[in-house]
Amino acid sequence: MSDTIEISANGIDIEVDSRHWINGARVPSPQQFEDVSPITGKTIGLVSRGGEVEINLAVDAARAAFPNWARTSPVERGRILHAIADLVEEYNETLSQLETLDNGSLLRSHRRGVMPRVAHNLRFFADWAINELHHPEIDTRGHLNKVSWDPSGVAALITPWNAPLMLATWKIAPALAAGDTVVLKPAEWSPLTASFFAELTKRAGLPDGVFNVVQGLGAEAGNALVSHPDINRISFTGSVPTAKLVAKAAAENLTPCSFELGGKSPTIIFDDADLDLAVTLAAEQFDNAGQICLAGTRLLVHENIASEFTRLFAEKAGKIVQGDPRDEATQVGPQIHQRQFDKIKGYVDRARTSGAKIVFGGEPNLDKGGNYFTPTLITDAQPGSEILTDEIFGPVLTMQTFATDAQALELANGTEFGLAAVVVTGSKEHAESFCEHLVAGTVWVNCFYVRDLAAPFGGSRKSGVGREGGTWSFDFYADVKNTVYAPNGWKD
């Protein structure tokens, strides 16, 4: 069984060591699991399958490395994070090729957007460590309150497969900047970039044990990680059912958790909206083959414009190019895994059987083979049906109509989720009054997927617990301490 995965892409030969990264070195496991590309359906290579033994080794290494890393100045932590970002930029093509092969997302998006964003994640929190890791002082009757963010310990990070390295560094960067050490468990469907990234951290000068990667399955490595008594923080991005298991395990040790979970977000289109803009924003919900937790997959359209909107949207959708994500012309690639493909198809088939109308799509793209599901729009679904309430995580949108703002609001807030919302209207005043009552962690008005790391990110209801980003990240990854100094009692 080889521990090295060799890939040739775009004229470059790439080698990825598929063993765990623990205490600055590679560690194998007796067992391995297959990493399968959604583009070809073929096995890319074998990856070490960790469990309790490897998790214990990683946590022990992170625990041993913590005191020195916590004592490292924020300026030095920031310098190292910048050095890692430099290497991410240097290896943009390698990382882009690996991630596209691994999860089927568009290669051009990785090159131009995702990997630059990985570097930005690192640089943003590096700069924060260097310049902003302090609070304003507070005066209380002459007493001085000095609030600090103190390193908390070992952070367990469990990340998803839909944007593997970007979402991992979204957590890694603030944790390291705060002075924590890290054990990362990447998604088993997209393990490659995390393994390659680990090597970059050592080249950048990150001390051994500060960052560790254990590959494996959720029920094995993931469960062992979140149950470990020496974990001080758990940040998890994934599904609601898995989050419940994580929360139960964390409760045993009272480990603080941050959860970014699923969504069933609305895109609300009012009758004063720019229709071309509305159609464009609706089509953007198919990005990454619909595998975006923030996607506004429930189109809520004012009845006055519903017919014209549907016509224009169907016209635009008919021009979407689906195919190999390595092709520059491709706009929508495959679903990441056969299980995900089957899940999507099951939802659509049951909706059709129950009387819903398939406006376009609704079938596998047989011309492409494999896990390609056509961009789909469904109308006339029964209120409360699963197609309207469950997160499908694929290129499937539903459409409902409304006559009044009250109806739109009832529909928009009518799920157990509250992750995001998109509002399309020609009136700023209307947007402000309507958005005030939306239940969502992020609301985009006449835009989509604009994300600033200084802003809070998270969901309401079953879409998550807590917020990350900017100061909110440090409030989570650090221990917030207040030291009060009296104005008297000093002998000097």
Describe this structure as you would to a colleague.
By secondary structure, the chain is α/β, with parallel strands linked by helices. The protein contains 15 helices and 24 strands. The protein folds into two domains: 4-261 and 463-482, Aldehyde Dehydrogenase, Chain A, domain 1; 266-445, Aldehyde Dehydrogenase, Chain A, domain 2. The strands form seven sheets. A seven-stranded mixed sheet has the order 16-17-18-15-14-20-21, with helices on both faces. Strands 11-10-9-12-13-23 form a six-stranded mixed sheet, with helices on both faces. Helix 1 packs across helix 7 and helix 2 (74-90) packs antiparallel against helix 4 (107-131).
Report the mean per-residue pLDDT as an integer.
93
Question: Which fold name fills CATH's third level, the topology of the largest domain?
Answer: Aldehyde Dehydrogenase, Chain A, domain 1
Low-confidence stretches: none
The count of helical stretches stands at 15
Question: What's the count of strands?
Answer: 24
CATH class type of the largest domain? Alpha Beta
Could you give me the name of the CATH homologous superfamily of the largest domain? Answer: Aldehyde Dehydrogenase, Chain A, domain 1
Helical coverage, percent range: 25-40%
